[in-house]
Amino acid sequence: MGPTALGTRKRRHIVLTGAMGVGKSTVGRLLADELGLAFLDSDEYLEATYEESAVEITARDGVAGLHEIELDVFLRMCESPEPAVLAPAASVIDHEPGRRALEDNFTVWLTAPRGVLARRQDQGAHRRKVSAKERDALHASRSPLLREVSSITLDTGASSPVETVETLIALLPGSLLSIASD
């Protein structure tokens, strides 16, 4: 990734990416609060914009239709004029415009062991159900792409959300912290 200054058109937002259940929303809210930034969550943005949940959209349009909408939601979130913490759907990495948007911002790839993800993904009615086979296939196809676009990779499996945020803040470049305090 080339050197671009945070606060310019590129690298404006901190984007937390990763699989469903990895903690993007929980960590994102805490990080945004800690940094004094807005927090934009894909699921909330999707429901506010489309007036349907991801589960409802999947039932109507299938997974591919949901992923197209999730990409649209992420690209709209990236248009926010003020620096923010963004938590897009994991599927945005599957699309070239999504990958470019991830590269244009400061992207943090949150990971967790497969067993932890499976437990978390089975909780909550807002998530579509994913089989172990599909989860493994998504991990295999998305991991190389996420590795390529992410500035930081952080495992959330063994730490609390607060500990994850503390670790993440310690790893953020000073330029990100200074823009957050402006």
Task: Describe this entry's structure for a reader.
The longest helix has 25 residues, at 54-78. This protein has a single domain (14-181), classed as Rossmann fold (3-Layer(aba) Sandwich). It has a 5-stranded parallel β-sheet, sandwiched between helices. It contains 8 helices and 5 strands; from the N terminus they run βαβααβαβααβαα. The radius of gyration is 15 Å and the shape is globular. It has 182 residues and is an alpha/beta fold.
Strand content: 5-15%
Number of helices: 8
Which spans have pLDDT < 50 for at least 5 consecutive residues?
1-9
Distance between the termini: 25 Å
Mean pLDDT, rounded to whole units?
86
SSE arrangement, N to C: EHEHHEHEHHEHH
What CATH calls the topology is: Rossmann fold
State the major sheet.
5 strands, parallel
Coarse shape = globular
CATH architecture annotation: 3-Layer(aba) Sandwich
Provide the domain count: 1
Largest sheet, order of strands side by side?
A: 2-3-1-4-5
Q: Given this structure, which CATH class is correct?
A: Alpha Beta
Extended strand count: 5
Helix content: 40-55%
| Cα radius of gyration in angstroms | 15 Å
CATH superfamily: P-loop containing nucleotide triphosphate hydrolases
Sheet/helix structural class: alpha/beta
